[in-house]
Amino acid sequence: MAIIIELDVMLAKRKMKLIELAEIVNVTPQNLSVLKSGRAKAIRFSTLDAICAALKCNPGDILLYQTEQPKDE
Q1: How would you write the pLDDT of the chain (73 residues) with one tens digit per residue?
Q2: What is the C-alpha separation between 68 and 24, in angstroms, rounded?
Q3: DSSP-derived secondary structure for 27-59
Q4: Cβ-contact 36, 5 below 8 angstroms
Q5: What pTM, to 2 d.p., does this model score?
Q6: Which of 22, 54, 65, 73 has a CA-to-CA distance to 28 between 20 and 30 Å?
């Protein structure tokens, strides 16, 4: 996938645990774990808004776009 999730980086910068963020955002820790690991297929804008508000960051601090490298044949 070309979208990289760096939620763990922002959590470390803010010295916050995933469980703390889950309580603030009102999302289960399991759902945030799926997002953090990059396995999420989608995220609601309301959830992204709440995460950014809690971490005092912008969406671009959490979501990065990386072009996919062509696979060698």
Answers
A1: 589 999 999 999 999 999 999 999 999 999 999 999 989 999 999 999 999 999 999 999 999 998 877 666 5
A2: 34
A3: --HHHHHHHHHT--S---HHHHHHHHHHHT--H
A4: yes
A5: 0.85
A6: 65
